[in-house]
Amino acid sequence: MTPEQRDEKIHHTLSAVLGLSVDQINDDTSPDNVTAWDSVMHLNLVLALEEAFGALFTPEDILLMNSCRAIRQVLSDRAL
Amino acid sequence: MRLHHIGVATANLRESIDAYAVMGFAAGEVIHDPLQKVDICFLEKDGDPVIELVCPANAASPVGNILRKNGTMPYHTCYEVKNLEVEIARLRAFKFVTAVRPLPAVAFGMRRVCFLYNKAVGLIELLESAECLAEQSTP
């Protein structure tokens, strides 16, 4: 998977879970600017990302994944 | 795994203890857990599941977020398990995500607890059995 394909998959997952259009997703998308992204939605998002990327995230990963940019970094660190 | 208690988030322990007393529940002592950043009180009534009242001890407590969004409400069910690591691994294979790693819990005599989330179940707490803790303590 290329970095572009990975980013597209992240954006589509965020879009589907948070109920936003893909156009509304950018690197800065986070709980600070998306009302729907609360603590429960965050766990739903983590589950959706696990399914999309075939990954198992740690509690430490989950804490770090607090924006679209941070999600990409966590996935990148795992070579996904 | 067996149901151990139902966790109820509350912003005011005393008010909730008094309200549950009206429904026949007797309160134990209030326990402060610095690791979980909460104050806890167990409520018991013959034949009913145990209720665990959980009140944020400070602004950093994650229970504060639950209260801000939903107010006082049941927010987790706790299950006692023989082996925490084995059960976590089993549930991970069924789309449960580990929200909080195993930590010793003051309210359970330093037996470890952890929290997992599943979209179709919600938040659950796993509590290791006393036997498991005793085995770990045995040299």
How would you characterize this protein structure?
By secondary structure, chain A is mainly alpha-helical. Chain A has one domain (3-77): Non-ribosomal Peptide Synthetase Peptidyl Carrier Protein, Chain A (Orthogonal Bundle), CATH 1.10.1200. Helices cover 59% and strands 0% of the residues of chain A. Chain A contains 4 helices and no strands. In chain A, helix 1 (3-18) packs antiparallel against helix 2 (39-53). With 139 residues, chain B is α+β, with helices and mostly antiparallel strands. Chain B contains 4 helices and 8 strands, in the order E-H-E-E-E-H-E-H-E-E-E-H. Chain B has an 8-stranded mixed β-sheet with strand order 2-3-4-1-5-8-7-6. In chain B, a hairpin with a 5-residue loop joins strand 3 and strand 4. The longest helix of chain B is centred in the first third of the chain and has 10 residues, at 13-22. The radius of gyration of chain B is 15 Å and the shape is globular. The model of chain B has no long low-confidence stretch (mean pLDDT 93). The interface between A and B is medium-sized, with 14 and 14 residues.
Short description:
Chain A is mainly α. Chain A has helices spanning 3-18, 39-53, 59-64, 68-77. Chain B is an alpha+beta fold and 139 residues long.
